[in-house]
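User: Show me an example of a complex going from sequences to C-alpha cells.

Assistant: Sure. Here are the input components:
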Amino acid sequence: MRDKSRVEVIIFAAIVILLAAIPCVNRDPYLLHILCLIGINIILAASLNAILNIGELNLAQTALMGVGAYASTLLVMRVGVSFWVALPIACMVTAAVSLLLSILTLRFRGAYFLLFTFLFAELVRMLLSNFCIGIFGGIPGLTNVPKPRIDLGGVLQLTFNSKLEFYYLVLVLTALTVLVLRRIDRSRTGRILEAIRQSDSLVESIGISTLKYKVIGVAVGGAFAGVAGSLYAHFVGIITPSDFSVHSVLQPVAYVVVGGMGSVFGPVVGTTFLMVLSHFFLRELGFYELLVYGIIIVLTIRFMPQGLISGPRLVASWIAERRKSLNVVRNDEAT
Amino acid sequence: MEWSLLAQGGLNGVMLGVNYALIALGLTLIFGILGIVNFTHGEMYMLGGYVAYYFLGHFGLNFFATLVLAAIIVGLLGCILEILVFRPLTARPNIELTSLIAALGLAWVFQMLAVIVFGELDKNVPSAFSGILRMGGVVITVERLATILIGLCMVVLLNLFLLKTKTGMAIRALAQDKEAAALQGVSVDRISALAFGIGCGLAATSGALVAPIFGVNPSMGGEVILKAFLVVILGGMGSITGAMLGGLVLGFVESFGCLFFRVPTVMVLTFIIIILILIIKPRGLLGHA
C-alpha cells in the first residue's frame, strides 16, 4: 500500500516537472493557452468530483465557479484589492455560497438534489444577468478583467500579461488542488466519504453523522470551484453570466465521467483526454465536435462506468482471465 | 386594474399551464416508473416540433394525424433508447446518477444532430386553425383555444389509459413495486420500454401541438426542459396529478406575475416560491416519499 502511494507521488512529481519544462521546448501561445484552460478545467472537474464523492451530482457547479469568478473580478475591479487577496476571498465566498446551497439541498437525495441544484444554477444566472446591472454588468458581463500583478517594490515587478506567466500560475494551483484533494481522500474523512457514497444509511448505523461529512464535501467542492472561477476570470479577461449557465456544467460532467468518478486522478485524466482531443484533433469538426463529446459520454457510462482510470485494471483483469482459462484448457488436455 | 385584464391573465395562465403540464407529464411518468431523470425530454419535444414542421408544413398532413405521427415516431425512438442505453444501467448501483449522465449526453447528441440535419435557424409551422374569439374584453385566438382543448383531451386520455386498461395497470404496478409486479406476471422489460416510449411520445405530441404557435428550432428543447423540471419538482416527482397541478400553478404565477412585474423579476419570484414550497413540503405538492 505504502509502496503504491510512493509510486503515485513519484509519477505525479515527474509529470509536474515535465509540464513545467514544456515552455523551454515550445512557447507557442496557442499551446500554452490550451494548457492553461486544461488546468482550470481540471480544478473545476475535481471540485465537481468532490461533491460526487458524497454520491450527488451538483448541477450548480459551474454556477458556483461563476460566483467565484464574479467575486474575484468585482473585488479587483470595484474594490481595488490585488488578485492575490481576491483569489482566497473568492474561494471563501464560493465555499460559503456552496454551504448555503447545502443547507437547502442536503435534505434531498438523488433526483431532488440535482433538480434543486439545477434551479439554483438558473437562479444565479438570472440574478447576474438581470439585477444590479451597474455592478454585475448584466448580460454582456464584465470585460477587461485585470491580469494579476506581483509588485515587490524594486525587487520584482511582474504582470501576468503573457500566457507563459499564467501557465506557471495555473500549473502550481492545479498541482496544489490535486495534492490537497488526494490528502483528503487518504484521510479518515476521505474513507468516510467513500463509505457514504456506497451506503449512507450504513454509515449512520455505526454512529457517524453523515451530515457533517456531506457538509465538508460540499464546502471543499465549493472552495475549489471558486479557485477555478477566479483563475478563469483573470485568465480569459471577460466573464458573462451565460459562461456559467447550467448548460455549461455538461463539460465538467463529461470530464469526470470519462476520467472516472470518485477517484482523485479520474477528473485529471478525463479533462486532459477530452480537452486535448477536442482542441488538437477535433478542431476542424465544428458542430461534430460536441456531437462526438456527447457520444463519448454515453458510450463511457454504458460500457466503462469506472472511466478511463479503470482502463489498466480492466486490461489486467482481462489478461488474468485469459490466462486462467488457458490454464484450464491446458489442465483439461493434460488429464 | 380592470376586470378584463385579470380575466385575460387567467386565460393566458390556463393556456401556459396546460402546455407546461403536458410537457411535464411524460417526464414525471418516466421518473415514477423507471427512476430516470430524463434530460432528453426537451429534445423529444423538439423532435416532435420538427415532425410537425415536415409533415404539417411540407407534406400537408392533417393536424391531428401529425400529432399521432409525432407520438409514434418519437415514442419508438424512446423505446429504442430505453433498450439500448438505459436498461443496461438499471443492473448497476446508483442508477439515478448514471442514467442522468447518459441522458445529459444523449440530449447533447440530439441537439447537435438537429443543428446538423435541420439547420440552426427558426422555422415556421403553418397554423391549422385561424380566427379570433372575443368575449367581452377578453381576446383569444382559436388556435390557442384549440391547443388548450387538445391538451386537456390528452391528459384525460392518458389518465383513462393508466387507470382502465390492463397495460396501464401494469405500468402503475411497476411504478409501485417492480418485484411484486414481476411476480404478478408483468413483463418488466416490455412495460419499461413502453413507458419510456409513452413518456417520449407525450413530449413529442406537445412539441408538435405548440409548433404552429412558437415555431421550431434545435434549441427549443433546452428552453422548455427548465419549465418541465420546475413543474415536476413543484408537483412532486412521479405524480401525474401533481404535474397537472404544478403546470397550472406555474402558468398562473407567470401569467399574473407579468401583469405586475418585469419578466426577470417574475422568474426569480417563481424560483423563490418554489424553493419555499419545497422547504415546507420537500416532496413537492403531491409527491410521495
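The lines above are the inputs; the final block is the predicted structure for all two components together. DSSP finds 14 helices and two strands in chain A.
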